[in-house]
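Handoff note, outgoing to incoming analyst
You'll be picking up this chain. Sequence as last confirmed:
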Amino acid sequence: MVSPSRSAPRLAFVAAATPAARSARKRLEKLYGSVAPAQADIIVALGGDGLMLQTLHRNIRRGTPIYGMNLGTIGFLMNTYKEARLLQRLNRARQFSLTPLRMVAVNTHGRSVEAIAINEVSLLRSSRQTARIAVSIDGRKRLPDLYCDGALVATPAGSTAYNLSAHGPILPLGAGLLALTPINAFRPRRWRGALLPRHAKVEFTVLDPRKRPVAAAADSVEIANVVRVTVTEATDIGLTLLFDPEHDLEERILKEQFDP
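Most recent structure output, in case you need it:
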């Protein structure tokens, strides 16, 4: 349950670029008032899962709870859009805590770049040839030579995004797991990925970076020509999503896995 700092929480509304989302934002600001995100007790995001990801990134160091209302396509992480009784819904909302990933990527020039990923850290080949990647978990080499189009590490929040398209598993938000998923693995052909504890340290080593270049991405931040990528849980960052009690996320996760 949300515990506002006063009788009515200060709300900030953010909207996707669509006409429907922008129009909804104007109506809601007129009904409930609004402040800038930096002054808000709760941020209300109007759009789809893409906007939710963007809003989480923009407020990643504030820790402000974010409540999404779906005006997008899928809206897996969004509540149903309703304008009435919003304050009551916020007061009843359930909290889900998310911990993002920290990517440290080193490129062929020895430059190290750090970035935060809420959905996933992914590696993708940058040429017509397959990538060759070695995979280590907690300092122990588990795959000495993976031929593939790429690989990714997904959080539970990101498991329904790119990870799902790559045939990775869907993870409940509270599972305490990460999904390590290959992208079009050629060899070993039968390897379909692994489930890892959330505190695991994953290291990818690009085995032939000159001939078979690879790029790495933490959500939308991309680093070209990487030779090594380390992925760990960013335990210093906490994110909070708010869901209506009737927004049965567990049921949606099950339904997604059994629907054709």
